[in-house]
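About this split. The held-out portion is used to measure sequence recovery: a designer receives only the structure tokens and must propose an amino acid at every position. Recovery is the fraction of positions where the proposal matches the reference. Here is one held-out target exactly as it appears in the evaluation file.
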């Protein structure tokens, strides 16, 4: 027996096509309006931080931000209603970001000034990849994620080494400088060591003794190597990950194959012969 959809189901389907259907004209139009609204919201938030504009147009900024917040609130509710599995959306990355982008304005009733946290809406601009059909570019983040995960243990050991060195060198500098030029205690000396080692160099604390300057020079030179090590670790893992994924590329256009069971390349349409092309399981 053929299922007859109710008016509510038809309405929900239409809403879903507009909100989630980035491949349709209505969906693209809605997404572009949404992105434009997000950008407008970010501009309003930035303008409120400039005193001369906020003093003159404060009321306008607040009203505009509330209109945008109400628009986002309605959109968030419609996304939940139109989804057959609303909990999947609510607890998804985009669902959490959408919710967090609403809260600052409502929290401003209880915590004055919290509306500036609405800048989290900038994360919603990630939908631009879906709108412009740039999902393959966004999916490249999986390679970075895998490389960072593979590098975690090495980076933890490296950070531990840096912390230990900062404590030792900071303590030595406290002893050498003997409380002069800001080296009044070990925590301050460790702070100076970290600032110097990372080549930030605020200049609020500086050694004055010859031995202290010599040690500082050593720390500065060592800092360049410290900056390069984590980059080298992650780069090596990225290269390794890249080599392991070469066999997942389309033999014709070299596009990465995300679906291991795909029969055709989504980029050039090349047909895959799975007996001849090995797809990673």
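Reference sequence for scoring:
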């Amino acid at each position: 027996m053929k299922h007859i959809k109710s008016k509510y189901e038809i309405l929900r389907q239409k809403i879903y096509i507009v909100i989630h259907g980035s491949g349709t004209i209505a969906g693209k139009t809605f997404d572009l309006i949404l992105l434009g609204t997000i950008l407008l919201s970010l501009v309003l938030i930035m303008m409120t931080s400039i005193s001369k504009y906020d003093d003159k147009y404060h009321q306008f900024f607040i009203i505009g931000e509330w209109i945008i917040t109400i628009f986002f609130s309605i959109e968030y509710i419609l996304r939940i209603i139109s989804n057959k599995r609303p909990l999947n959306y609510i607890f998804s990355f985009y669902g959490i970001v959408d919710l967090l982008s609403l809260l600052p304005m409502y929290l401003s009733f209880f915590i004055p000034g919290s509306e500036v946290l609405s800048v989290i809406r900038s994360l919603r601009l990630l939908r631009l990849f879906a709108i412009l059909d740039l999902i393959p570019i966004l999916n490249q983040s999986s390679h970075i994620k895998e490389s960072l995960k593979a590098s975690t243990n090495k980076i933890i050991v490296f950070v531990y080494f840096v912390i230990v060195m900062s404590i030792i060198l900071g303590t030595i500098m406290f002893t050498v400088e003997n409380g002069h030029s800001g080296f009044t205690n070990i925590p301050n000396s460790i702070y100076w060591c970290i600032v110097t080692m990372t080549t930030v160099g605020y200049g609020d604390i500086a050694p004055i003794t010859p031995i202290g300057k010599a040690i500082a020079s050593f720390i500065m030179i060592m800092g360049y190597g410290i900056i390069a090590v984590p980059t080298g670790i992650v780069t090596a893992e990225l290269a390794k990950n890249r080599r392991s994924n070469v066999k997942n590329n389309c033999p014709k256009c070299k596009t990465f194959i995300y679906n291991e069971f795909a029969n055709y390349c989504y980029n050039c349409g090349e047909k895959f012969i799975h007996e001849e092309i090995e797809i990673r399981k």
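Annotator remark: The chain is about 65% helix and 0% strand.
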